[in-house]
Every structure is written in structure tokens, then in C-alpha cells.
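[Discussion] Sanity-checking designs against the backbone

I'm trying to build intuition for which residues belong where. Below is a C-alpha cell string of 154 positions. I'd appreciate it if someone posts a full sequence so I can compare it with mine line by line.
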């Protein structure tokens, strides 16, 4: 026998409270992910700037090393602004300065782990130190890279 009025309902679906709680959890997770995307964009831009900075520093150093040992631009100095040999090359995003230190080494075996003393204009070894700074204003902080190499007469 069937009872009238006591029908069994099989409700399928979610209540309004369940839907709102799910949306709240989803919003919290989405905000966390959005913050990570923002941070990743800044880190990516910074890495790109450092890569360009390193490339520029290598370019300047190699151009200076390619000049003859007696070139007037390779005279001992504490700091000069780099002027490219190729007049068509220019990069407004970086400033490059370099310093030349001259050393006199008579015998490489006499060094014994110590660096030789500097000489004024009579050295047979020049240390070229290049300092490149980023002038990009879109990132916070100062970006600077220093590289150095030796140039031997002969």
C-alpha cells in the first residue's frame, strides 16, 4: 500500500550555500595564482635585463681586446666611457666604462701566485676591466656587471 503525501524525493544538485563556498575557495586560489604570475613577470624581465647586460659587457670587452696592444684607447686609466669602434652601433639601454691597468711580467714562472706590481705605461700585460650598467627604468634596483680580461703584448 502506498502512503499519500509521503513521497520520497531524490534531490540532485547543490544548494546555494555549497555553490557560494565553492566560488569562495576558487577565488582564493585564483588570487594566489595571480600573485605568482605577477612575480614571475618581474623575475622574467629582470633575468632578461641581466642577460642583455652580460651580452653587452662581453661585446665591449671583446671589442677592446680586439684593438692593438698599443692602441691609444688602451693606455692605463682608472675609468673611461666606452666609445664603440663601429659608429653605427649604439645602445641607449646601457652605459659602459672601462679601466686599463698595466703590469710588467718578466717571467710567468716568477709570479708564484702573487699578482705583479703595476707599472706606468711600460707593461707587457694589460688588464681590461669593463663595468656595464643598465639604464632601463622599468625595473627596480641598480643592475651592474663587471668583467675583466688580460691582454698580453706580442
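Best answer:
Here's mine. Compare freely.
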Amino acid at each position: 500500500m502506498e502512503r499519500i503525501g509521503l513521497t520520497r524525493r531524490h534531490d540532485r544538485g547543490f544548494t546555494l550555500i555549497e555553490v557560494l563556498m565553492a566560488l569562495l575557495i576558487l577565488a582564493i586560489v585564483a588570487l594566489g595564482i595571480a600573485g605568482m604570475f605577477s612575480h614571475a613577470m618581474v623575475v622574467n624581465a629582470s633575468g632578461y635585463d641581466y642577460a642583455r647586460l652580460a651580452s653587452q659587457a662581453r661585446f665591449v670587452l671583446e671589442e677592446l681586446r680586439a684593438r692593438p696592444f698599443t692602441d691609444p684607447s688602451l693606455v692605463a686609466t682608472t675609468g673611461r666611457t666606452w666609445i664603440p669602434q663601429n659608429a653605427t652601433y649604439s645602445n641607449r639601454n646601457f652605459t659602459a666604462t672601462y679601466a686599463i691597468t698595466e703590469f710588467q711580467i718578466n717571467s710567468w714562472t716568477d709570479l708564484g701566485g702573487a699578482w705583479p706590481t703595476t707599472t706606468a705605461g711600460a707593461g707587457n700585460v694589460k688588464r681590461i676591466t669593463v663595468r656595464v650598467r643598465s639604464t632601463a627604468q622599468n625595473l627596480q634596483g641598480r643592475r651592474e656587471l663587471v668583467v675583466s680580461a688580460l691582454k698580453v703584448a706580442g
